């Protein structure tokens, strides 16, 4: 009799283990689909049998160490114990994001309904997400570096997707102590335009939307690369001036920067292309005038709405040939209903549109029926 009981117990335990394993495997298949990273240098995603490991290697400038996030299906135990890793149970149903660049990612994944809070909601330009704000579905959370902790706790998000320009994460650390996991989106650190767009895969991983993200990214990648090939079919390569004065300093994009990559792929001659900086260069007016007075185009002239307004800010701007020839273009004129800049919100997710805009400006014969999405000519 005792032998039969032992045998039955073994069979029961065996079947139970098989059932748990089977359920875990099903959850893993549903929410931890493999992902391949092509362009993003600051993002590493590894799939393991029962969890996904995400490393953000460059969350902010001069970061001393990478950030590690472990994703495991809801209803399963943590796959291991770690003091450094942040564990997140997926899929997420309620999320808070802190950058407008996250908004298009959620929308392209059809996940905007999962968003419950955002700091400075006036900055959001998307009509779809603005409608949710107006309905009260998305709450105002104050400032991104000083989130209203009380409101955050009331919303009970399962995840906060933050960012940091300088490594200051005090506001996030405080919230994380309450048990709400915080992850850092480092997409803005990417140097390649497609690298920034590829961070949609980072966001998608927390919602089990990997396949959708891959499809969205591949379409953008295809459009971007096709536009690049098109631009190479012309021998003309107009010279480009970029940036503008702020107080006594003219900031121009470095030769290895995100902006310089667009100008290169659009088959233009960026006058600071030989510089190796990935950020911006701080120059005085005289050095810019000496180098770029004869530039064919001035792309990225700041937020002035007209040439006269631009001249009011600095009368010496009219010394540039681009100003005289009225070939000055700005990407900061198109705004949302509450003043948010569409270029800064949607641009990182749609580098193909930015590139086509620049190609249209530099080589109008190549995209004859194209209507620029972000850039406008100053008159």
Strand order of the largest sheet: 7-6-5-10-11
pLDDT averaged residue by residue: 91
Strand content: 15-25%
Task: Say how many strands there are.
Answer: 19
- The rounded Rg comes to 25 Å
Helicity range:
25-40%
* Distance linking N and C termini: 96 Å
Outline: globular
Describe the main β-sheet briefly: 5 strands, parallel
Structural class: alpha/beta
Number of helices: 14
Instruction: List low-confidence stretches.
Output: 4-14, 16-24
Structure description:
With 379 residues, the chain is of the alpha/beta class. The chain is 36% helix and 18% strand. It has 14 helices and 19 strands. The protein has a five-stranded parallel sheet, sandwiched between helices. It has a five-stranded mixed sheet with strand order 15-12-17-18-19. A hairpin with a 4-residue loop joins strand 1 (43-47) and strand 2 (52-56). Helix 8 (210-231) runs parallel beside helix 14. The chain is globular and about 65 Å long. It starts with a helix and ends with a strand.
């Amino acid at each position: 009799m005792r032998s039969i009981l032992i045998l039955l117990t073994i069979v029961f335990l065996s079947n139970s283990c098989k059932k748990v394993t089977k359920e875990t495997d099903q959850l893993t298949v549903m929410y931890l689909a493999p992902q391949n990273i092509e362009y993003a240098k600051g993002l590493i995603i590894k799939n393991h049998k029962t969890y996904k490991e995400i490393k953000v290697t460059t969350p902010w400038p001069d970061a001393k160490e990478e950030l590690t996030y472990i994703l495991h299906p809801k209803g399963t135990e943590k796959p291991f114990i770690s003091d450094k890793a942040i564990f997140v149970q997926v899929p997420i149903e309620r999320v808070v994001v802190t950058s407008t660049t996250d908004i298009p990612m959620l929308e392209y994944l059809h996940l905007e309904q999962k968003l419950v809070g955002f700091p400075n909601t006036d900055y959001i330009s998307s009509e779809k997400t603005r409608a949710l704000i107006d309905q009260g579905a998305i709450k105002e959370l104050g400032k991104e570096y000083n989130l209203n902790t009380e409101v955050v706790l009331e919303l009970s998000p399962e995840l906060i997707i933050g960012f940091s320009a300088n490594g200051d994460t005090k506001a996030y650390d405080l919230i994380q102590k309450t048990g709400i996991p915080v992850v850092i989106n480092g997409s803005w650190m990417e140097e390649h335009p497609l690298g920034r767009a590829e961070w949609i895969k980072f966001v998608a991983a927390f919602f089990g939307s990997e396949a959708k993200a891959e499809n969205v990214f591949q379409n953008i990648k295809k459009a971007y690369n096709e536009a690049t090939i098109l631009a190479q079919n012309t021998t003309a390569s107009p010279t480009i001036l970029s940036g503008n004065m702020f107080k006594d300093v003219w900031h121009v994009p470095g030769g290895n920067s995100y902006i310089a990559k667009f100008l290169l792929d659009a088959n233009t001659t960026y006058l600071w292309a030989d510089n190796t900086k990935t950020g911006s260069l701080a120059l005085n007016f005289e050095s810019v005038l000496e180098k770029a007075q004869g530039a064919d185009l001035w792309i990225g002239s700041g937020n002035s709405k007209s040439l006269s307004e631009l001249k009011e800010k600095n009368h010496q701007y009219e010394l540039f040939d681009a100003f005289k020839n009225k070939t000055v273009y700005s990407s900061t004129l198109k705004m949302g209903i509450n003043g948010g800049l569409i270029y800064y919100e949607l641009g990182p997710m749609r580098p193909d549109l930015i590139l086509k805009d620049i190609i249209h400006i530099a080589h109008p014969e190549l995209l004859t029926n194209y209507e620029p999405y972000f850039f406008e000519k100053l008159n």
